[in-house]
Specification:
By secondary structure, the chain is of the alpha/beta class. It has five helices and five strands, in the order βαβαβαβαβα. Helices cover 40% and strands 20% of the residues. It binds magnesium ion. Magnesium ion binds next to loops.
Length: 120
């Protein structure tokens, strides 16, 4: 069973993502900011990280930059953005994100992104 770390400061987004991912037979853990996510990545391996950009404490971008400095098997990273964050996509891909998805996302789009990064 693959596992996904859902990183978002919105409890509602985490809940929606969890629901979709579990329906795709993926085990889910949640982090509420980049720092929390980094700690969890140091403690357990994840196949994929679904990553929000704007979060308190540590942003998605800072998480991406620090992920490469910790000594773990690197998860695939799908960066989540809103239409307002379109300009962030290039920066996220440059910083090592594998794919991106626009919010609000649905099951079909998330499934196709997970296929594109080879998780399912
Ligand atoms: Mg956010």
């Amino acid at each position: 069973m693959k596992n996904c770390l859902v990183v978002d400061d919105s409890k509602v987004i985490r809940k929606v993502a969890r629901h979709i991912l579990e329906s795709l037979n993926i085990r889910v853990s949640e982090a509420c900011d980049g720092r929390d996510a980094l700690n969890q990545c140091q403690n357990a391996e994840h196949d994929v990280v679904l990553l929000d950009w704007n979060m308190p404490v540590m942003s998605g971008m800072e998480f991406l930059q620090q992920l490469s400095s910790i000594n773990v098997a690197r998860p695939k990273v799908i960066f989540c953005t809103t239409e307002n964050g379109l300009g962030h996509i290039r920066a996220a891909l440059d910083a090592g994100a594998d794919e991106y998805v626009m919010k609000p996302f649905d099951r079909d789009i998330l499934e196709s992104k997970l296929q594109q990064v080879g998780v399912i």
